[in-house]
Amino acid sequence: MTPMMKQYHEAKAACGDALLLFRMGDFYELFLDDAKQAARVLGLTLTSRDKDSANPTAMAGFPYHQLDSYLHKLIQAGYRAAVCEQVEDPKTAKGLVKREITRMVSAGTLTDDGLLDPREANYLAAVVIHVPRKGKSPSGETMAGIAWAELSSGRFCSGTFPVSRIEDELARIGPAEVIYREDDATFSPDTTAPWSWTARPAWSFAEDASTELLCKQFAVGSLEGFGFRDDDAAAIRAAGAALTYLQETQVGGLDHFQSITAHHRSGVLEIDASTRRSLEITRTLRTSAREGSLVDAIDLTCTSAGSRLLADWIAAPLIDINPIEARHDAIAEFIAHANLRSDVRSTLKQTFDITRLLARIATGRTGPRDLQQVARTLAGLPQLKAKLAERAPKRLAYLESHLHLCPQLRSELEAALADECPLNAADGNFVRSGFDPDLDALRDLAAGGKQWILEYQHRQMDETGISHLKVGYNKVFGYFLEVTNSQKDKIPADFIRKQTLKNCERYITPELKEYEEKVLAADEKASAREQLIFHNLRTRTHQHLATLQEVASAMAELDVLASLAEIAAQRNWVRPELTDDSVLRIDAGRHPVLDVTLPQGEFVPNDCVQSPESGMILLITGPNMAGKSTYIRQVALITLLAQAGSYVPADSATIGIADRIFARVGASDELSRGQSTFMVEMVETARILNTATSRSLVILDEIGRGTSTYDGLSLAWAITEHLHEQVGCRTLFATHYHELTQLEESLPRVTNLNVAVKEWNDEVVFLHRIVPGGADKSYGIHVARLAGVPSEVNERAKDVLAQLEMDHRDALDRPTISPPQGHRNDPNGKYQLTLFGFSDHPILSQVQRLNLDTMTPIEAMQFLQRAQQELQQNPVLKP
Length: 879
Prior knowledge:
Blueprint: H1 3-15, E1 19-24, E2 27-31, H2 32-42, E3 47-49, E4 57-63, H3 67-76, E5 81-86, E6 99-105, E7 124-130, E8 143-150, E9 155-162, H4 166-173, E10 177-181, E11 196-200, H5 207-218, H6 233-249, E12 261-263, E13 270-271, H7 273-279, H8 294-298, H9 304-315, H10 321-336, H11 338-349, H12 354-362, H13 368-388, H14 394-401, H15 407-416, H16 437-464, E14 470-474, E15 478-484, E16 496-500, E17 504-508, H17 510-543, H18 545-571, E18 577-579, E19 584-589, H19 592-597, E20 606-610, E21 617-621, H20 628-644, E22 652-656, E23 660-664, H21 677-691, E24 697-701, H22 709-727, E25 730-735, H23 743-746, E26 750-760, E27 763-772, H24 780-787, H25 791-807, H26 842-849, H27 857-873
Parallel strand pairs: 1-5, 7-10, 9-12, 10-11, 13-23, 18-22, 21-25, 21-26, 23-24, 24-25
Antiparallel strand pairs: 1-2, 2-4, 3-4, 5-6, 7-8, 8-9, 14-15, 15-17, 16-17, 19-20, 19-22, 26-27
Helix pairs in contact: 5-6, 9-18, 10-18, 11-13, 11-18, 12-13, 12-18, 13-15, 15-17, 16-17, 24-25
């Protein structure tokens, strides 16, 4: 094994199952099995070292400047990668260049802009099932700890949840990667989830070690100050595991993790994973993309940090009226003062994503351009702070107080950094002239030397008469004089030949080498001086980390509040009135997404009234395509927006705070779990019936349609009764079962609504208006015609429907529907629809031939005996 391959294997042993990207000069190389996997995933050419040996080494590689694009492909494919860099200059290294793993990259540990979506958070989550040391938890339910941390921002939260809510909480967080205990037999990762799973050793979840690690990270003696309670051991274990993983993967440090938030479910509106999908809160149901979702439709933020915070607010609305109304007060101020809103948004557009800039500074991956963007962001704060001064809303006053100007840091960065800065400090020339006298002197010396070399070239041309002489430079020979072969006869005696090429010769002179040393020495010293200045600037900025994080947080919240005011002003949204009563009154409400995406005035608004007096359960009947599903969704989304702190699309709204929102909308098989459409529907319905409270909001769409008509109707009937009698929550139930409208007569808090339809000349017009009363028709045949079903099928359906509506069973409970005219199996014109056709029976034929008028009672009895014996002897003849 060569020294280089020995170095490679040592690095590979340290990075475990991650693919090792091994820096060799201007390339990153992968070897052995890593090379084979990378070649397949990245489309690289697979080659080998020592091809003629008995054991050639597989290898694949790519240029160093393509690192980000290839890392992105590896992460997207579910791999982890370790980047092993050359940590000393090859020119000064003695022997083999020293290499070290500088970072481990996985889906949940990204910090580079090129690998992240600026609008979305990139969380690493940790999950652990917790068994208390003294038996069961106080509630008797098994609990789980879930922590989530974002390396690119320093945000860190952890909470304790029932095991049954793991899926729901992960759906709310939306992590990129989830770590779990590798030997936990009680927890099985859901491999169908849209995030990657990473198994971790049991010791990283240890309770005592986790507490000690967290206290050390935050320099505290106890975690109580962060809001953790005695029963939060699970949350602490999960947080400790997440922090351990981040420390292992990040060589540069985690100083930007300044605190941790104890997440308690009691303050947040609960939304399960199924409801999130159904309501398309952050992802669409069909494509699972952000585009088309609620958060995408209302996102008018000016900054990336604001966009991410808006998504957090929408994913986790509040249930405490006071902080919600504080947000509403701030939005009202921005709406009332359009110039304030415009100025704040204009200033924010000139700022940069400080949150992620600080993360790169803390982890040692920053460059001059990052520091320059910090300075430019600080330059906008005085104007922003002045605009917010003495504003009445308490939340705006709080945010203004956290816009720390950091004048000394800003002044130093602006004085030091040039107007245009490179991404990497190694590229140089980013320190402004006049900032550092020593650097200026070295630059002048280097520039003067280069000028001397240029003058030297012209002098040699004049003295030697070589018209095509020129001075060149390369890393091997340094500066040299190049002469074409046609003029070699003019070479003077003091020219020393260094290299012969096809068409020319290269020479040096003692005088040229003397100035070369001065130039190169000045360049190297200038570069070293510039790197020292950069290091000092980065250190100074790092010292302001906690202060700048407060600034970043305040700016993000200002952006969200101003953007929500902007959409409210643009679309005429109103401030909802909040109450703790279990009521819902929406006047002329509109679907938030459609209200934004459709031309203004095109969407048909509808009212919604729910209260113990007017009815808590609204049964909505009507045809498909008429707007039932849109209506019930818009009520849920308006409630969600109101509790997130936003204005809502309506003329007026009174929202009773909901503790949970449930949505059983749409149907889809979960084949990967072996569950049919109907099973999924019933599992989700069971969750609603078992966990909804009187303060919950439930929307149901077509419950029971996945089974037979009578089974479905019976279930829908019983579900409605249970919600009315046992739960008592606000419910909107869209259904095709018109029979359910009878419940209004027996259940006092059930109200029938239907979607208005206009019939004219055998045509149907959907008015999209919700009106009192139950629908008397489904209009399914008209919808089928609109969908393109052949006309002959529609006409036949009309005939069948007419007969069904009159009387579809005779006195013997047999179908009475006649076949289409001229049906080939109906020569007599009388035909009954059956699943199986009737065939002649031998005994029936004998009965038909009997002459009952001439038979005696004894003969009739004997016939019955023979028939019975025949049936017993030949079971096939049994009817």
